[in-house]
Amino acid sequence: QVQPVESGGGLVQAGGSLRLSCAISRGTISTYGMGWFRQAPGKEREFVAGISWRGQSTYYADSVKNRFTISRDNAKNTVYLQMNSLKPEDTAVYYCAADQYGSGDPTEGYDYWGQGTQVTVSS
What is the pLDDT of residues 5-20, one digit of tens each? Predict the structure, then answer.
C-alpha cells in the first residue's frame, strides 16, 4: 500500500508560519492528487487543502483560504502546505493523503493516508 509520510510539524507562535511536507513511501506522487486534512482534539477530521496531479487545480477550506497554500513539486516527489498567519485554532494533527484518481477534489475520496504530524499554535 502507498503510505504518505508527513514532516515539518511543530510548535509555532500565533501569527507565525510553518511549512509541512509530504512524500509517499513507494513510487512517486506524480499521478496522485494530494491533500491535507486535520483533526483537532474533540473534533472531526476536516479537509484543509487539495491539489490535482499536475497542480492545475487547487481546493481550500474556507477557514484557511488566503492563509494556507498547497503546492507540489513532482520532480522532488513532495507536496507542501505553507501555513501563514497561524492561529491557535489551527492546532491539530495534520494528515497528508493521496487520491489515486488524481483530482485532489475534496468531494472525491482519498485512498491513502499518512500517520499525521502535530501542529501546535500558541498564543
Answer: 999 999 999 999 999 9
